[in-house]
């Protein structure tokens, strides 16, 4: 007799759909506390297993990864936006794309991005100064989206996308929520049907597609001096056939990197600033460290290793509020995990949000304690995933955090407006539900 993993009580017909819709983070955390490291969920006929122990994560993502691909429901939903791309592809297509794109994220390439990250941040701070003087609040969540979008535009596409940033922010929000709603529903209208949700999604996707098409054609007409992600994609050739990537494949990667490259980092920075606003001691520590390393100058790649307080604050906020709060895999064949049967075709969920609160691995898991990252190598820490599908942009994101957080704190003190809920909104990424509005106080440098 095959042993099924334990499961919280749910409805006979819909399973755990209600709580999954209304309080997915609470459902996952409670389930691991009550039922242990493997928990079975059901949404109508769909079965998923939450796997919540580093050894079991290694089983799925590394040791037995051949049995767990990304042909999952979440990848299907993401494919509505990205098509087949590095984020969603499997097998040979994934391997080739990863090989093509990887050099864009080598250390030397990242060193070349630092100036652009600092310049984009300085432009944002200059605009903030005007707002601070006029007594106008800013929404940090939205500002971080625009900033990281502009940075990705400059670093990966060699283009200034400032004027497109509002349109993309709105469109991305619509698309990210739409795909998440589809993921957590049992039945969805086919995406070709003209439902209000589908129409809103299509319009948002068309807006972003237009921006990308324009970006690609400008790039072809006037290739930037420094090679960009688009240059690499356009010049790449299949190892065997020598065939170049088609326009669709280039479009898919472009939209993937616009999405994955800004939305995650923006959420990570938004949460870090939310937590910093409540922990004045860490603001001071970051400012002093930055002053010691850079004085009043712009940071360089050589300064980054000296900015460990900023790094630890960012790592701790990604522990408490991991921008990617869940990853999903699809079981190709029957398997057994920790003695429990995992049927072919079922889903496996790995949730950094629950792993980062696992009481066996984290002391006082709900507290903000960046000093825990003075020790490296935490076993149950997966903000960037694990195994060969590990985030390709992790070093880029960590470099951005070490430049952006100290630059903001050097110039401003943040004071939260009354009534900021700090509520987490899990969509594909973990967002600040109502944003984070602050008044800015200029600091005299
Ligand atoms: C704090 C910021 C970030 C976080 C928390 C994050 C998180 C993640 C995670 C958890 C995965 C693995 C997903 C899975 O296994 O299913 C991933 C993959 C990926 N990330 Fe990131 N990411 C961040 C920043 C970035 C940036 C800056 C870029 C690009 C510039 C990027 C591009 C990607 C891509 C393309 C993949 C797919 C890699 C593959 O499957 O080979 N990410 N990211």
From TrEMBL:
Necessary cofactors: heme
Record bears the keyword Oxidoreductase: yes
Residues spanning the signal sequence: none
Keywords: Heme, Iron, Metal-binding, Monooxygenase, Oxidoreductase
Molecular function via GO: heme binding; iron ion binding; monooxygenase activity; oxidoreductase activity, acting on paired donors, with incorporation or reduction of molecular oxygen
Superkingdom per UniProt: Bacteria
Transmembrane segments: none
PANTHER family on file: BIFUNCTIONAL ALBAFLAVENONE MONOOXYGENASE_TERPENE SYNTHASE, CYTOCHROME P450 FAMILY 4
Protein name, as recorded: Cytochrome P450
Organism of this sequence: Luteolibacter luteus
Lineage, highest ranks first: Bacteria, Pseudomonadati, Verrucomicrobiota, Verrucomicrobiia, Verrucomicrobiales
């Amino acid at each position: 007799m095959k042993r099924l993993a334990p499961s919280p009580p749910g409805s006979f017909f819909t399973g755990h759909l209600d709580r999954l819709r209304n309080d997915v983070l609470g459902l996952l955390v409670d389930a691991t506390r009550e039922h242990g490291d493997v928990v079975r969920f059901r949404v109508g006929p769909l079965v998923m297993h939450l796997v919540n122990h580093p050894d079991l994560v290694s089983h799925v993502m590394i040791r037995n990864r051949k049995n767990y691909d990304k042909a999952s429901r979440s990848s299907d939903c993401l494919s509505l936006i990205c098509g087949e791309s590095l984020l969603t592809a499997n097998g040979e297509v994934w391997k080739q794309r990863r090989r093509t794109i990887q050099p864009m994220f080598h250390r030397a390439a990242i060193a070349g991005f630092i100036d652009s990250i600092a310049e984009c941040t300085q432009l944002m701070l200059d605009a903030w100064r005007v707002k601070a003087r006029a007594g106008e609040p800013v929404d940090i969540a939205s500002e971080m989206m625009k900033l990281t979008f502009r940075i990705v535009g400059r670093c990966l596409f060699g283009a200034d996308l400032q004027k497109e940033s509002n349109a993309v922010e709105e469109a991305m929000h619509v698309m990210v929520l739409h795909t998440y709603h589809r993921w957590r529903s049992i039945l969805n209208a086919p995406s070709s049907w003209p439902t209000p949700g589908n129409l809103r999604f299509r319009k948002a996707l068309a807006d972003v597609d237009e921006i990308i098409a324009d970006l690609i054609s400008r790039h072809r007409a006037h290739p930037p001096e420094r090679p960009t992600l688009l240059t690499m994609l356009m010049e790449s050739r299949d190892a065997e056939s020598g065939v170049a990537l088609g326009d669709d494949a280039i479009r898919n990667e472009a939209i993937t990197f616009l999405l994955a490259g800004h939305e995650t980092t923006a959420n990570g920075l938004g949460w870090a600033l939310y937590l910093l606003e409540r922990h004045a001691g860490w603001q001071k520590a970051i400012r002093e460290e930055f002053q010691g390393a850079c004085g009043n100058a712009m940071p360089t790649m050589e300064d980054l290793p000296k900015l460990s307080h900023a790094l630890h604050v960012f790592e701790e906020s990604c522990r408490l509020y991991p921008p990617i709060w869940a990853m999903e895999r699809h079981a190709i064949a029957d398997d057994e995990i920790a003695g429990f049967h995992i049927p072919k075709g079922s889903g496996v969920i790995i949730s950094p949000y629950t792993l980062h609160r696992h009481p066996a691995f984290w002391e006082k898991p709900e507290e903000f304690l960046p000093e825990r990252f003075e020790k490296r190598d935490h076993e149950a820490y997966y903000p960037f995933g694990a195994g060969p599908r590990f985030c390709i942009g992790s070093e880029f994101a960590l470099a951005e955090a070490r430049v952006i957080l100290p630059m903001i704190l050097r110039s401003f003190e943040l004071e939260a407006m009354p009534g900021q809920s700090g509520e987490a909104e899990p969509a594909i990424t973990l967002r600040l539900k109502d944003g984070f509005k602050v008044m800015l106080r200029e600091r005299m440098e």
